[in-house]
Amino acid sequence: MSAPTSWTLADGRELLFFDLPGHTPAPVPDRRPLPPRDPEPSELRFDRTTGQWVIIAAQRQDRTYKPPAEACPLCPGPTGLTSEVPATDYDVVVFENRFPSLAGEGNGVAGPPEADGFVAAPGVGRCEVICFSADHTGSFADLPTAHARLVVQAWRHRTADLLARPGIEQVFCFENRGEEIGVTLAHPHGQIYGYPYLTPRTAAMLAQARDHRIAHGTNLFADLLAAELADGARIVAQTEMFTAFVPFAARWPVEVHLYPNRLVHNLTELTDAELDDFAAIYRDLLGRFDRLYDAPLPYMAALHQYRDDGEQGDGYFHVELMSIKRSATKLKYLAASESAMDAFIADVTPESVAARLRAL
Amino acid sequence: MSAPTSWTLADGRELLFFDLPGHTPAPVPDRRPLPPRDPEPSELRFDRTTGQWVIIAAQRQDRTYKPPAEACPLCPGPTGLTSEVPATDYDVVVFENRFPSLAGEGNGVAGPPEADGFVAAPGVGRCEVICFSADHTGSFADLPTAHARLVVQAWRHRTADLLARPGIEQVFCFENRGEEIGVTLAHPHGQIYGYPYLTPRTAAMLAQARDHRIAHGTNLFADLLAAELADGARIVAQTEMFTAFVPFAARWPVEVHLYPNRLVHNLTELTDAELDDFAAIYRDLLGRFDRLYDAPLPYMAALHQYRDDGEQGDGYFHVELMSIKRSATKLKYLAASESAMDAFIADVTPESVAARLRAL
């Protein structure tokens, strides 16, 4: 696929157009009187009780909050005065978040600090928005095949680009969908974070995988995938190159993990054929989600990606899809057991959820 | 204080009355035709990708969900036909949850399983409900001093009782308050869990404390408390025996930690004078919470308690109070960065929150 077209927004942020074959972007100047960006919008603080970094991004309190559809900042803005995307139309665009939790370049923070006491560090990194489509009312599951594939291509481009930048340890492509989980912009979009540290959950998973490799000589995730395939009770969907299942110890009322059938670390290692297959099964899964309760399902989609190097080499690219909707009318809330103790309590058996999703 | 009065509910569950001086409970027979309890209501499953146990409690889907006030199962039920508390009145009661996530006796699961593959274990343990008051419309912050102290006494009693039971590794007293975090019963109440394993967050905190002790020879939490006192910018309230502060790396829009000024492991090690002081400052903090936005604040209150033994000996009893309310009208949702990657992003500085709470 061809390289994206780059554009610059009024406050200096980068905007990238990814186009379907035969389409050419036609951006116009962004004429909005945007305030200059804060060069240091956040800081990292180290929590000694958990050994984890926390991002303190206090300037985001005033970020755009549930604007009416006619003021949507993600719809095309042909006048250059109304939107984050100054153009008459687009297929897929990616741009830096106007209210970033992480921004700028610098050193990442690999692991705990050497100093004692209260330790903070600049919140360097990258926060991007990816608009899946110019259509305000659609969803990822509704995208035509070639369009879904274009989103995957954009994710892959951003992964390669951000992983190459100094200070970025981890690239996280994700989608939050639904007001029930706090989404403040209805327009179909996702986000891409370049974290300056290995996130706590990723670090925990890599530690498990390292221990597994030392004990068994094999890859933890590959072994889990093989075990799920051998068991079969929690398989949701399969293609030639991908497998989707509800994990044995699912935490969420609806939870599906999607693995490529061979070990890769991130999207950049997949072949074109695998990327085609990935776009198709990913979209298929999200379609099942929406049919589960005959209504758009609020969900989170998390692409777990790793570097192909020593510390992260035990990682296995996969997607974790999660929803808090435990019935057509009820939500699962993360209250004190989950939020304060990380002790998850699931209300449904993984096998029953897999059977329902498989049948849809 | 005197020992509680024990009563038995129609399905065999235990109910305990804790009374203010001069009060005597007057229970009546529980005449509800309750179905027999499931002796194995849940199972634990081990998640190899994180090294954590997950509770699968599938029978809880039908638990009581936002009943009208006149059908509240926590209000006194003098007929023995309408309530979990068959009595004309009560001060504080504790009873086993009718829809428990953990129940029964057996072996706990200390650490990861030895076996490979998919490993499950019985969900033994204990889930209790504690009603703070017979008044349906009150809150903990509204309780008279002696009544708040009685709740603390009940927590202490349950902690001692449950810690002595085989298979229970950790006793967690907590309160979820507010529909915004999924509370389905408005009546002022908390819960008490006896987990058959060390919860993941507690295990992580104890690992940090152990490393700190090995490196510095001192207690991590005591050093953090001393550092917060020396800094002062995040102190919210102090008494002779307790200190409350917003932690340096707070994760939540409103987060306050309450520590006794001397190291104890759990409520059973506090003196009567300390328990008096604890009840007073705890209630004071919850009152500040409700004054923050001039409305009842949705919150989670988590009592971090430890055994006084080798593995848990580095623990330091404290309370973590958290709210997801980031302004008078907006909630902080745990979306993909937090839920999928444990990477927390705070929208406010801990110092500004501490200053506001201190001034209230």
Write a compact overview of the structure shown.
The structure is a homodimer of 360-residue chains. Helix content of chain A is 24%, strand content 21%.
How would you characterize this protein structure?
Two copies of one chain form a homodimer. With 360 residues, the first copy, chain A, is an alpha+beta fold. In chain A, strand 10 (235-238) and strand 11 form a beta hairpin. Chain A folds into two domains: 5-197, HIT-like (HIT family, subunit A, 2-Layer Sandwich), CATH 3.30.428; 202-359, 2-Layer Sandwich (HIT family, subunit A). Chain A has an eleven-stranded antiparallel β-sheet. Chain A has a three-stranded antiparallel β-sheet with strand order 4-3-6, with no helix packed on it. Helix content of chain A is 24%, strand content 21%. In chain A, helix 1 crosses helix 4 (272-292). Chain A has helices at residues 145-163, 200-216, 220-231, 272-292, 336-341, 350-359; strands at residues 5-8, 14-18, 43-47, 52-56, 92-96, 120-122, 126-131, 170-177, 189-195, 235-238, 242-245, 254-260, 299-304, 318-323, 345-346. The first copy, chain A, is built from six helices and 15 strands. The model of chain A has no long low-confidence stretch (mean pLDDT 94). The interface between A and B is large, with 81 and 81 residues. Strand 4 (52-56) of chain A pairs parallel with strand 15 of chain B.
